[in-house]
């Protein structure tokens, strides 16, 4: 495994320990039956009852199990052994039928030739992947003919801005070089010892082209001027569940969604 991916796996192992009991993930509400899915993906993906669904980069399985609660036959894949162990334990605790596989989503060999009605991924997944062509190839491989792919993701313009969303501090386009960081906190809250990690910026055009090159047909591309998570200090809540840039409300894209069909 690429040493940078190995470093990221160490980080996500630590974050899995922190995140599951954080207020950000509201596990009490989830255990009581609340969904972790947001309105965008619910509207984009639609009815999943009786359909097989593959969730790439599933973390500790909250969204995966939310899809299962809506009637999907779910499989979640994640790089982190700690996250997958917690996902399996959570499914058993709640009595939800779900399969979880620990694998690099760029080469999920544990899935063999399995194909699904739906492949889904969301929120903070693409920046951890060095090769979107391989990613799109995996999606195409595991979709049934006529199957649908859905992604809801943070808009890549955000990764080019500073912590106040006032200055451009890194390139918008993928140069092929990884950006190295040293993390001491989880995005969900909670501190940990320093762990190096690596991210790769991907423009919206790069994401779309990778899917097209893999043979998928885009059916929808949307951009949203708000975020459904308060992930950055520069966000303020403009209405319940919608967060905008405090000094540019509604003027910057914060999320995008893509739907495609095989």
What does this structure look like?
The protein is α/β, with parallel strands linked by helices. It has one domain: Vaccinia Virus protein VP39 (Rossmann fold, 3-Layer(aba) Sandwich). It has seven helices and eleven strands. A seven-stranded mixed sheet has the order 3-2-1-4-5-11-8, sandwiched between helices. A two-stranded antiparallel ribbon has the order 6-7. It has a two-stranded antiparallel ribbon with strand order 9-10. A hairpin with a 2-residue loop joins strand 9 and strand 10. Helix 1 (3-19) packs parallel to helix 5 and helix 6 (132-142) packs across helix 7. The two termini are 29 Å apart.
Concise summary:
The protein is α/β, with parallel strands linked by helices and 262 residues long. It has helices spanning 3-19, 27-31, 39-45, 62-69, 81-94, 132-142, 204-213; strands at residues 52-56, 73-78, 98-102, 116-122, 143-154, 179-185, 191-199, 217-224, 235-239, 242-245, 255-261.
Structural domain count? 1
Q: Which structural class is indicated by helix and strand composition? A: alpha/beta
Let me know the CATH homologous superfamily.
Vaccinia Virus protein VP39
User: Looking at the chains present, what oligomeric state does this protein adopt?
Assistant: single chain
Global outline: globular
Mean pLDDT: 95
- Examine the coordinates and then state which fold CATH places here, giving the name of the CATH topology: Rossmann fold
Please describe the biggest sheet, giving its number of strands, its sense, and whether it closes into a barrel. Answer: 7 strands, mixed
Give me the Rg, rounded: 17 Å
Architecture (CATH level 2) name: 3-Layer(aba) Sandwich
Task: Report the CATH C-level class.
Answer: Alpha Beta
The tally of helices reads 7
The end-to-end distance, rounded to whole angstroms, is 29 Å
What portion of residues belong to β-strands?
Answer: 25-35%
- Poorly predicted runs are none
Major beta sheet, strand line-up: 3-2-1-4-5-11-8
Helix content range: 25-40%
Question: Total strand count, please?
Answer: 11
* Helix and strand element order: HHHEHEHEEHEEEHEEEE
């Amino acid at each position: 495994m690429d040493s940078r991916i190995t470093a990221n796996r160490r980080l996500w192992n630590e974050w899995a320990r922190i995140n599951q009991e954080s207020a950000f993930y509201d596990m009490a509400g989830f255990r009581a039956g609340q969904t972790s899915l947001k309105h965008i993906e619910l509207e984009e993906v639609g009815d999943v009852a009786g359909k097989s669904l593959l969730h790439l980069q599933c973390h500790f399985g909250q969204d995966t199990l939310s899809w299962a609660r809506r009637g999907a036959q779910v499989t979640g894949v994640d790089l982190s052994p700690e996250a997958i162990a917690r996902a399996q334990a959570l499914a058993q605790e709640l009595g939800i039928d779900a399969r979880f596989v620990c694998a690099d989503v760029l080469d999920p060999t544990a899935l063999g030739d399995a194909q699904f009605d739906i492949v889904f991924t969301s929120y903070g997944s693409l920046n951890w992947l060095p090769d979107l062509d391989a990613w799109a190839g995996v999606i195409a491989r595991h979709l049934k003919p006529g199957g649908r792919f859905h992604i809801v993701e943070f808009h890549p313009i955000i990764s080019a801005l500073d912590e106040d969303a006032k200055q451009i501090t890194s390139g918008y386009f993928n140069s092929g070089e990884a950006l190295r960081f040293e993390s001491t906190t989880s995005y969900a809250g909670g501190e940990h010892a320093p762990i190096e990690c690596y991210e790769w910026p991907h423009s919206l055009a790069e994401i779309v082209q990778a899917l097209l090159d893999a043979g998928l047909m885009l059916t929808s591309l949307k951009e949203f001027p708000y975020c459904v998570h308060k992930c950055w200090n520069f966000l303020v809540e403009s209405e319940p569940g919608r967060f905008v840039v405090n000094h540019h409300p509604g003027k910057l894209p914060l999320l995008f969604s893509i739907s495609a069909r095989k």
